[in-house]
Amino acid sequence: MTQVSPFKAGLLCRCPRCGEGKLFRGYLKLAPSCTACGLDLAFADSGDGPAIFVIFLVAPLIIALAMVVGAVFNPPPYVHLFLWIPATLILSLALLPPFKATMVALQYRHDAHEGHQ
Predict the structure, then answer these.
(1) Looking at residue 2, what is its pLDDT?
(2) In this structure, are residues 39 and 22 in contact, taking their beta carbons and an 8 Å threshold?
(3) DSSP tag of 43
(4) Would you say the pTM of this structure is higher than 0.85?
(5) Are 18 and 109 in contact (CB under 8 A)?
(6) What is the three-class DSSP state of 104?
(7) What is the three-class DSSP state of 97?
């Protein structure tokens, strides 16, 4: 079996071993095992990593866009609220599952789990 790219598996939210089975049972709840290859996903613990990476990506993007919109169009402050609060929420919620799936796939690829060197 060829190895699946952890980034491809993460982006598609698929099993890190076979790339076929769904990784999540809910929004961010991992399935107990892969439905395609039977990989036990008990090893997976991404912790706060995905949230940190999403914050580091979304925050500068939103700030840069807000500054550009403010400089070009000079809208009133309430327009910024109507634009950037929903944009921040939507981007953050949309990026969390792929980032978590990528972290799980990288854990699988590098055999990383607590207490293991």
Answers:
(1) 80
(2) no
(3) G
(4) yes
(5) no
(6) helix
(7) helix
